[in-house]
């Protein structure tokens, strides 16, 4: 599914989804975008979104805003203006399989 030019506000957005693409979207979600297999985000904003990308695989996310927190992504690439907290607290997740780039540094809880 591909969503273009939309504003989406909802708790647990996109959970257990496969092949989700968001382009030019603004997302506000508590624990949004978790458990997604093959997530693509281009030119998107994540507002007040915490614990994002938990157990997501095959991520290609280009975020043009700050992210409150990212937790346990399985693999892929995430770029953002900044990330308040990066959490890797699951021993089964290899943090080296996820490339995270920010314009400003984030704190990491590994």
Q: Round the Cα radius of gyration to an integer and report it.
A: 12 Å
The helical percent reads under 10%
Give the overall shape, derived from the CA principal axes: globular
Domains counted in the coordinates: how many?
Answer: 1
Quaternary structure classification: single chain
Number of beta strands: 11
- SSE order, one letter for each helix or strand: EEEEEEEEEEE
Class by helix and strand content?
Answer: mainly beta
Largest sheet: 8 strands, parallel
Strand content: over 45%
Weakly predicted, low-confidence segments: none
Total of DSSP H or I helical runs spanning 4+ residues: 0
Helices and strands in order:
Elements: E1 2-4, E2 7-9, E3 18-23, E4 26-30, E5 37-50, E6 57-63, E7 66-71, E8 76-80, E9 82-87, E10 98-102, E11 107-109
Parallel strand pairs: 1-3, 2-4, 3-5, 4-5, 5-6, 6-8, 7-9, 8-10, 9-11
Protein name: DUF3737 family protein
Organism: Companilactobacillus nodensis DSM 19682 = JCM 14932 = NBRC 107160
InterPro entries: DUF3737 (IPR022208), Pectin_lyase_fold/virulence (IPR011050)
Structure report:
This is DUF3737 family protein. InterPro entries: DUF3737, Pectin_lyase_fold/virulence. This protein has 110 residues and is mostly beta strands. The protein has one domain. 0% of the residues lie in helices and 57% in strands. It contains no helices and eleven strands. The chain has strands at residues 2-4, 7-9, 18-23, 26-30, 37-50, 57-63, 66-71, 76-80, 82-87, 98-102, 107-109. The strands form two sheets. Strands 1, 2, 3, 4, 5, 6, 8 and 10 form an eight-stranded parallel beta sheet that branches. It has a three-stranded parallel beta sheet with strand order 7-9-11, with no helix packed on it. The model has no long low-confidence stretch (mean pLDDT 94).
